[in-house]
Amino acid sequence: MPVERSAIADATGRLQRRQQVAQRRRLLRLGAVVVVVVALGAVIHLVAFSSVFAVRIVEVRGTSLVSAAQVEQTAQVPRGVPLVRLDISGVERRVLALPEIKAVKVTRSLPGKVVISVTERRAVYAMSSGSGYSLVDSEGVSFHEVADLTPGLLVANLTDPRDQRLRRDTATVVVVLPDAVRARAVLVSAATPDQIVIELSGGARLVWGSAEQSEQKAQVAAALLTQAGSVYDVSSPSHPAITR
């Protein structure tokens, strides 16, 4: 009997020790979870609600036609707002409201900087606008006023400068002009989208017609201009004509 009681006591002791070990492990796991939760909460508070990672600096890149200050003012990036809570799409939408800006990307940079990278529109021709010129890009967007022209930039005389299609079609023509044609071009006239004419040096004229088949017309025009003439007509590129 004493041997049996001793064996039972040993087994009971071992069971109690295993239970104690298991309980300690559960407490340790629970403690670890609590620590992680607390740490995570602290990180979330630090990043999303404290001023440690809040907006302090706004940097603008890629400007030429507009100033960095103008872009920053238009962007309206709120200082003191945590970076993770900054409305990036809202900032980009406001910057794109500037007519000179074609594309924009806003990025966050720790600990507290916002970088606004812009791509400005590029002029393919200009329209006279009284005291200066209005620049027009390849999409026909009139986006900026200048007092003087960049050398080599063509001027277009449009019957209705407010006509988006007329501006766009004129841009389509100007973009594809071969160097041989561009070197002689002095003015682009467009009464309607079907009546685009390029005035050439020496008084000659290149009748383009509409913006359709412009690439083919460009090839034909380059060949025609190697011959003497006063009027070159590529409005029907399969049946070009020269008036001498």
Name its key features.
nine-stranded mixed β-sheet; elongated; 244 residues; alpha/beta; 27% strand
Largest sheet: 9 strands, mixed
Find the structural class using helix and strand composition.
Answer: alpha/beta
Cα separation of the termini:
135 Å
Q: Give the total of beta strands.
A: 12
How many helices? The count is 6
Strand content: 25-35%
Radius of gyration: 36 Å
Provide the spatial order of strands within the biggest beta sheet.
Answer: 6-5-4-7-8-9-10-11-12
Shape: elongated
Q: Fraction of residues in helices?
A: 25-40%
Low-confidence stretches: 41-47
SSE order in H/E notation?
Answer: HEHHEEEEEEHHEEEHEE
Kindly report the average pLDDT value. 88
Characterization of the model:
The chain starts with a helix and ends with a strand. The chain contains six helices and twelve strands. Helix content is 37%, strand content 27%. With 244 residues, the protein is an alpha/beta fold. Helix 2 (68-75) packs across helix 3. Strands 6-5-4-7-8-9-10-11-12 form a nine-stranded mixed β-sheet, covered by helices on one side. Strands 1-3-2 form a three-stranded mixed β-sheet. The radius of gyration is 36 Å and the shape is elongated. It has helices at residues 2-48, 68-75, 88-95, 164-176, 179-182, 214-224, and strands at 57-61, 101-109, 113-120, 123-128, 133-137, 142-146, 154-158, 185-190, 196-200, 205-209, 231-233, 241-243.
